[in-house]
């Protein structure tokens, strides 16, 4: 049985109890071999539907392992989900305005670039192309704003973890993880109800075929449910009797609890719109990848989706080293790869020093930025996504300088959590003292992307003590640690023994909302929210990167 430790979960599950009948308890009451079969079947379904990644340990271009995922979706308050969705266009706009404000970017980063070589290289590149005059006025942002919930006096509210402006991944895998949990056309429905204390329960939906597996060994109620549900050909069935039963069970409503997700389609339509604006039917899309792309499914499905929406459009994948060796800039500043003019460059790499093995990769990045190709992101957008900019926007009046609409700026500001600069001055000293007094309350962040770079707890103390009187402090920002509500779930990982896959864990979730913004100078042509992704991690883990190995794919179950 679930022990309701957290009042958040308590509230949620009590709400759920209004809708649902008890069915299945957590831990899932299955015989070991049945549970093992269920997990294997789900893993097979997932990898066979594009939920794969390359193995870090045994990298091969010819094989995939299944992405890690949660067995059940995670409960997320509908109102907070909708808030995150509806604020995305304002966040897109904010990022765009920030990226075009040289004075602001400079004031945010001037101290940081003195001490942080990577950010300095990016900034120098920006200054170079700016002084030469930007060759392309059109910009394309494919952004992902990440949120966690934080408890406040009157409930849980979303707080922004960060804004990603480069290589915002999981537009595809976010959909896959929803589909693992979502019953689909042609499948019967499987319902797992997790009973808790206080007669309260949460609901998870699993793919149809597993219903039988689950129900074989279960209670009378589950068998009843099985009898009803298994008689259906699919949830979308139009047969009146089916609808009647679903209505009886209140299940039609439940579908709305797993929100539709069209992130991939939306993101790719942004790339295609940019290509159309470039207005050269022979031009191509260039995707910049790492030397070894672990997240190959997520990337390739973007490519496949572009091909689906626009079959005549060619996509080329290259890493920065290959660009340095193979690409050229024409006299008219066209970027030429494999003899083709590049209309749009979509960066899925280039966000960490690891992607720049030598000067060659930097010269490749410079060549791209100098070119007429539409960059996603351009260097300004890349810099606008630094943690330093996020921290500066949170200082009083700064966000409001960019977002004039008071309702929008108030809504955005409510999602900010405490962010502090650590420069060598009085305010920086205060922040350092605060962190040294109670490091558990904070996260210490450098200007890096891709997960695994932040410091927590005692490591914060060590770091800050070691650079107490040094300018190096300006390379970092301090952020209030967000404490999201704890839920229970099963974390299914590849090559993990059954015992671990089948042990119920305490997890917390992070929601990412995707946005696209296509502009011609200051003229905003497209500004939309296009979908979501969710990741969960053990409460004992500080970071939740899926490829870093701690996070697993999840999907929101809205109540
Ligand atoms: P990155 O750009 O490397 O992804 P993030 O700011 O997203 O950097 O931090 C990485 C991870 O660290 C997040 O996914 C989250 O799990 C954790 N994290 C970051 N900021 C906070 C915070 N303020 N409170 C709690 N956890 C955080
Ligand atoms: Mg990031
Ligand atoms: Mg992140």
Helix content: 25-40%
Bound molecules: adenosine-5'-diphosphate, magnesium ion
Strand proportion, as a percent range, falls in 15-25%
Please give the largest β-sheet: 7 strands, antiparallel
Oligomer: single chain
Structural class: alpha+beta
Gyration radius (Cα, Å) is 24 Å
Number of strands: 24
Low-confidence parts:
1-24, 185-249
Straight-line N-to-C gap: 22 Å
Q: Please count the helical segments.
A: 22
Mean pLDDT: 85
State the shape: globular
Family: Belongs to the eukaryotic GSH synthase family.
GO molecular function: ATP binding; glutathione binding; glutathione synthase activity; magnesium ion binding
Domain Glutathione synthase substrate-binding: 284-384
Binding site for ATP: 224, 387, 445-454, 456, 479-482, 510, 537, 543
Please describe what this structure looks like.
- There is one protein chain.
- The chain is an alpha+beta fold and 559 residues long.
- The chain contains 22 helices and 24 strands.
- Strands 4, 6, 7, 20, 21, 22 and 23 form a 7-stranded antiparallel beta sheet that branches. Strands 10, 11, 12, 13, 14 and 15 form a 6-stranded mixed beta sheet that branches.
- α15 links the parallel β14 and β15.
- It starts with 6 loop residues before the first helix and ends with a strand.
- Mean pLDDT is 85; it is low at 1-24 and 185-249.
- The protein binds adenosine-5'-diphosphate and magnesium ion (2 copies).
- The site of one magnesium ion has 2 residues, from loops.
């Amino acid at each position: 049985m679930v022990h309701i430790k957290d009042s958040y979960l308590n509230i949620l599950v009590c709400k759920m109890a209004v809708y649902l009948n008890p069915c299945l308890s957590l831990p899932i009451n299955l015989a070991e071999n049945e549970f093992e079969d269920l997990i294997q079947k789900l893993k097979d379904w997932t990898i066979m539907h594009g939920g794969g990644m390359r193995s870090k340990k045994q990298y091969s271009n010819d094989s995939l392992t299944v992405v890690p995922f949660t067995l059940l979706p995670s409960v997320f308050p509908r109102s907070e989900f909708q808030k995150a969705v509806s604020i995305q266009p304002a966040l897109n706009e904010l990022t765009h305005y920030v990226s075009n404000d040289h004075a602001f970017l400079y004031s945010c980063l001037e101290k940081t670039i003195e001490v942080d070589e990577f950010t300095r290289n990016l900034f120098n590149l920006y200054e170079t192309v700016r002084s030469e005059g930007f060759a392309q006025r059109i910009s394309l942002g494919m952004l992902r704003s990440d949120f966690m919930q934080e408890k406040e006096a009157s409930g849980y509210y979303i707080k922004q973890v960060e804004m990603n402006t480069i290589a915002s991944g999981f537009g595809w895998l976010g959909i896959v993880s929803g589909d693992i949990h979502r019953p689909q056309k042609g499948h019967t429905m499987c319902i797992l109800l997790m009973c808790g204390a206080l007669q309260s329960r949460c609901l998870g939906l699993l793919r149809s075929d597993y219903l039988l597996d689950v129900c074989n060994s279960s209670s009378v109620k589950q068998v009843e449910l099985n009898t009803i549900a298994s008689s259906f050909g699919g949830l979308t069935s139009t047969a009146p009797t089916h609808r009647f039963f679903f209505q009886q069970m209140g299940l039609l409503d439940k579908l709305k609890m797993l929100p539709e997700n069209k992130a991939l389609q939306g993101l790719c339509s942004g790339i295609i719109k940019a290509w159309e604006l470039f207005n050269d039917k022979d031009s191509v899309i260039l995707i910049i990848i790492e030397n070894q792309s672990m997240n190959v499914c997520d990337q390739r499905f973007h490519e496949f989706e572009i091909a689906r929406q626009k079959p005549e459009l060619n996509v080329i994948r290259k890493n920065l080293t290959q660009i340095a060796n193979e690409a050229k800039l024409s006299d008219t500043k066209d970027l030429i790869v494999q003899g083709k003019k590049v209309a749009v460059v979509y960066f899925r790499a280039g966000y960490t020093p690891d992607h720049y093995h030598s000067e060659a990769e930097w010269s490749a990045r410079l060549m791209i930025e100098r070119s007429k190709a539409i960059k996603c992101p351009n260097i300004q957008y890349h810099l606008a996504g630094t943690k330093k900019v996020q921290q500066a926007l949170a200082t009083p009046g700064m966000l409001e300088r960019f977002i004039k609409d008071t309702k929008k700026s108030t809504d955005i500001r409510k999602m900010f959590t405490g962010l502090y600069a650590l420069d060598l001055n009085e305010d920086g000293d205060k922040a350092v003292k605060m962190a040294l007094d109670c490091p558990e309350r904070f996260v210490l962040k450098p200007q890096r992307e891709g997960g695994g770079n932040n410091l927590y707890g005692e490591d914060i103390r060590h770091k800050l003590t070691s650079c107490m009187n040094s300018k190096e402090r300006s390379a970092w920002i301090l952020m209030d640690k967000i404490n999201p509500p704890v839920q229970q779930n099963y974390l299914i990982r590849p090559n993990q023994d059954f015992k671990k896959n089948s042990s119920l864990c305490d997890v917390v979730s992070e929601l990412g909302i995707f946005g696209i913004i296509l502009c011609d100078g200051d003229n905003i042509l497209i500004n939309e929210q296009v979908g979501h992704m969710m990741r969960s991690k053990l409460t004992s883990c500080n970071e939740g990167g899926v490829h870093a190995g701690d996070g697993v794919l999840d999907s929101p179950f809205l109540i």
